[in-house]
Amino acid sequence: MDIQFVGAAQTVTGSMHVVRTEHATVLLDCGLFQGRRRESFEYNRRLRVPAREVSAVVLSHAHIDHSGALPMLAKNGFDGLVYATPATRDLAALMLRDAAAIQQADARYLNKQSVREGREDELVEPIYGEEDVLDAISRFVSVPYHRSIPIADGVRLTFFDAGHVLGSAITVLDLEERGKKRRLVFTGDLGRAGRPILRDPEVPEGADVLITESTYGDRLHDGVDKMEDDLARVVTRTVARGGKVFIPSFALERAQEVIFALKKLRKAGQIPRVPVYVDSPLTVRITDVFKLHPECYDAEARALLRGTDTPFDFEDLEYVEDKERSKQLGGEGSAIIISASGMCEAGRILHHLKNGVEDPRNTVLIVGYQAQHTLGRRLVERRARVRIFGVERERRADVVVLNGFSAHADQRDLVAYADACRARGPAGTIALVHGEPQPQRVLADKMRERGHGSIVIPAPNDKLEIA
């Protein structure tokens, strides 16, 4: 038995890990790499696993850096099944269709650039299309939390709640080969205890190998209460000077958390009454999926549903799908505009930033992780000039980062989770994935201080024997 770390190895995106036994090849996640447009496109054009050899795919959650290469897998001959929670199945159907549209838009953009620069021999096709998405979606099998099922010869799967996004799962694989039994636990993206809407992450019993994310392995997040107070201050300050608050937000989870926080602040009278727009068709559709899966909610969110209230609606909140309505938002007064994509690499947020980033009255509020080489990262770095739609623009708008909204565990959470796994049963090797090298090294040192001896930080395509 072994594990090969194909993606999200010493980087954050492109999650993909191959578990091989004598009789089966199981893929943990099948995500796209995200970063510079051309670099990402070129990297993602080549599938890095032999699709026809894969027995089954286990999907931790629906974010595109974990699910976005599934249509590529289907396109290249995968004929097995994809196992996910019911909510992840529903969300992935939306996310993958949106990803296909982005692939087509990226191909058009790159081809236009190549023609303009006289490189007609470098024209590209989209990585995959709608038919590949439909093929991938048709292979989904939904598995509720805590139900153990066989997915391949000598491989049983059980999902536990990861508390990261709606439907996110910690994957437990019980492996058997030649009478030898081993348990592998893969956190996927691990959430944080005490966050709104979702339940806290669960801890399964024992792990011969624990594969854990490490995105924020070198830092600590602010608490949820401080996060909401900071949000109120940003909104109040921006509205007082007549500006808009632009919130680039991942369509899945982050947008819904921001909406829920704004609802509570509005109800408590902590923010001024200004229009709030959710300007993202995908976010609108995903929020509808949230309403279908209250089984994933924590006690506070379920209590709202038992009354006549809902976590995702309040007065002055407008969900915008129509493109013409979206264009009108730039001409109105103070407002809060939540729009995708979360890293500012695609979607309507680019139009809002184009129109608003040069106005010093405005605020760009960053509420999620920004990968290297993205516009979002350049905003976080507070660059004086940023390129939007190929044009350099003065960045005069204020930029505020609220890490308290992060759906990823911080250093304290990650160390505590490793401790909790060890307390529940045998503890073996810990593999740190889904993180950049510096945070991973810091986290590894912290874990060793807690007595965790066998820790590896795999490079791309490294293999780990499951002893």
UniProtKB/TrEMBL annotation:
UniProt xrefs under Pfam families: Beta-Casp, Lactamase_B, RMMBL
GO terms of molecular function: hydrolase activity; RNA endonuclease activity
UniProt keyword terms in alphabetical order: Hydrolase
UniProt entry tagged with the keyword Repressor: no
Domain of life: Bacteria
Domain Beta-Casp: start-end pairs: 255-379
SMART domains reported for this sequence: Beta-Casp, Lactamase_B
Domain called Metallo-beta-lactamase: residue spans: 13-243
Xref: InterPro entries: Beta_Casp, MBL, Metallo-B-lactamas, RibonucZ/Hydroxyglut_hydro, RMMBL
CDD domains: TTHA0252-CPSF-like_MBL-fold
Keyword Hydrolase belongs to the record: yes
PANTHER family (alphabetical): CLEAVAGE AND POLYADENYLATION SPECIFICITY FACTOR FAMILY MEMBER, INTEGRATOR COMPLEX SUBUNIT 11
Protein name: MBL fold metallo-hydrolase
